[in-house]
């Protein structure tokens, strides 16, 4: 009986531990909220007034060297809105500082970017804003520049007195991403990266991405989740995993008991 319990414990750890391990160490998703006034945003790259981005979700990223990013996200009608506030980048490098956001529209976490993976970038105080699409070729040359959608907007500039997080001028970026490009989903893969031209460093979310550059593999991206929609796919996946694991344990125990019976008879 004791041996049987030991076997059950070992099987439980082997089969269930990967599920628990993944849940503990995965980055928390960014929850994007629905808004009623983001269509009033003035796309000048900064907080134009003190209430401009108030109706949006908020996330704060603090890095090991003390740098911090304040992220606002929201969706309304046919657009996703993103504001990246790099409050610690007070060295304004026009034409060099830049920001990028990426979406994995199927959230299939592929290693090599596919045609369902999109990135959008803008450079501080320039008209250089670009749309990129995965080309399924290689990690080194993984995205192609494509034509910007007519409704895509991205702008970066220095903050001013209306900024919500710091009165010291710093880099700030605003994006409006058309859902006609991404397609509608309640769970995107998501990646944020800013480049500090002064230190020549990239600061990205998720934090765990190593050797940070502008682009990274979608397999390393986090999740952007809309909580005002249900996510049955996740629940079904966990249920299937648990059911399969229990069936496997049951089959192994049955075979073990049959082996003991046959051994005893002989």
Reported by name, the CATH topology of the largest domain is Immunoglobulin-like
CATH architecture of the largest domain: Sandwich
Instruction: Please write the CATH class name of the largest domain.
Output: Mainly Beta
In total, the number of domains comes to 2
Mean pLDDT across all amino acids:
81
Roughly what fraction of the amino acids lie in strands? 25-35%
How would you portray this structure in words?
The chain crosses the membrane at residues 236-256. Strands 1, 6, 7, 8, 9, 12, 13 and 14 form an 8-stranded mixed sheet that branches. Strands 2, 3, 4, 5, 10 and 11 form a 6-stranded mixed sheet that branches. It is built from 3 helices and 14 strands. The chain folds into 2 domains: 29-225, Immunoglobulin-like; 230-260. It is globular and about 75 Å long. Helix content is 23%, strand content 32%.
Topology of this structure?
Blueprint: H1 2-25, E1 30-31, E2 33-34, E3 57-62, E4 68-76, E5 79-86, E6 98-104, E7 117-123, E8 129-134, E9 143-146, E10 153-158, E11 171-178, H2 179-182, E12 187-196, E13 201-205, E14 222-225, H3 232-265
Parallel strand pairs: 1-14, 2-4
Antiparallel strand pairs: 3-4, 4-5, 5-11, 6-7, 6-12, 7-8, 8-9, 10-11, 12-13, 12-14
Helix pairs in contact: 1-3
Organism: Nitrosopumilus zosterae
Transmembrane segments: 236-256
Keywords: Membrane, Transmembrane, Transmembrane helix
